[in-house]
Amino acid sequence: MKKQSIQKKFRNTTFGFHQYWNLHYTEYDSGGLEKDYAVFIKAKSYKLAKSILSQKITEDMAGVKIKSIQGAMFHKDYKYEGLRLNLEQWNQIREAAFPNIANVLYKNHLPRPKGKWNRFSYPRDLSHMGFKKGKENWSTINRKGKTLAPELREGKIWRGDKWVVWDKEDMLKTKNLIVNAFILHDNNRSKSAEYLGLSRGVLYKTMKMIQNTDWKKEYPPPKPFSNARPACKKLRSKIQKRIMAERKANGIGAFAHITKEQEAKRLKKLIATKHAQLQKSISKNIPLIKDALKNSNNIRRDAAKFLNVKNSWLQKWMIKTKHIIDWSKDYPSPYCCRK
After folding, report:
1. What pLDDT digit, counting tens, does each position of 286-337 carry?
2. Which backbone phi and psi does 90 adopt, to 5 degrees?
3. Which structural domain, as residue segments, surrounds residue 21?
4. Total count of domains within the chain
5. Distance from first CA to last CA of the chain, Å, rounded?
6. Disulfide: which of 199, 306, 329, 334 matches 292 by Cβ 3.0-4.6 Å?
7. Does residue 22 sit in the same domain as residue 105?
8. In angstroms, how far is CA 49 from the centroid of its own chain?
9. Is 74:20 a contact under the CB 8 Å cutoff?
10. 270 part of a folded domain
11. Residue 181: CA atoms inside 13 Å, Cβ hemisphere, count?
């Protein structure tokens, strides 16, 4: 994977304090005259720096517009002519940056090399390129009489420099090779092509050239595996409620398609699941409550604070588990026995 440029990260970041940006741009007027400049802008983001530059140019020169803005942020490892910036250079950047007290945009004019039609490249000779009509067309010269539409290639094969009728025995051998590859790889086209030493595109073209074979019907490709992230619980619940409301409006009740035996079985499983969940919660919470009461001198309110829960939660679970533990006897509160 190509390493991401550090300047790209800076351009996509909004900083909490001002940074210094080195912007290069082109000014042009209604007459088509273009000039290239470099400036220093002080801003918290690259987007804001460009906006400040554009606004200042508009204020200073009404008829002039700018284009092709490119910029980089000065940072501790920034290098100029192969060397890191020294304190004097940092001070010069700070003093020349806009906005400043003088409200002046200090511009450094960059003379454009002779022959360049913009500050990036030279004009190219395009006379030899492009589409040519008639007899001069490349396809007419090189491919006329040799091409064949894909729908007409069934039963034919390219030999030498033309399409010829494919020998039936040779076609059958090729078909058997493809079928064997499909059987070995569960009709997976990509793996079969790799097994045959072909690209997937060449495999598909060869399959179309074989006569009297419906590949999709006889050897259907496997269903694609979805890597899509499942919907969150809240969204899934919302979708299910909408679907159930639509079904109810159409006269279809919940679980109306199942028999009485299936309904009884479903309820039995539901009750068993709820009971298992309750037992799991009890086995988890009882040791926590015991430990909290021991560390709180059996004071219920302090035990709730120890567990970082509400007092009502603690009382609820003590009532729910009183058939297992006699909390008032085994863990008596110091306040319940006052006379």
Report:
1. 999 999 999 889 999 999 988 888 999 999 999 989 989 999 888 898 876 5
2. -60, -40
3. 6-109
4. 3
5. 78
6. 306
7. yes
8. 28
9. yes
10. no
11. 21
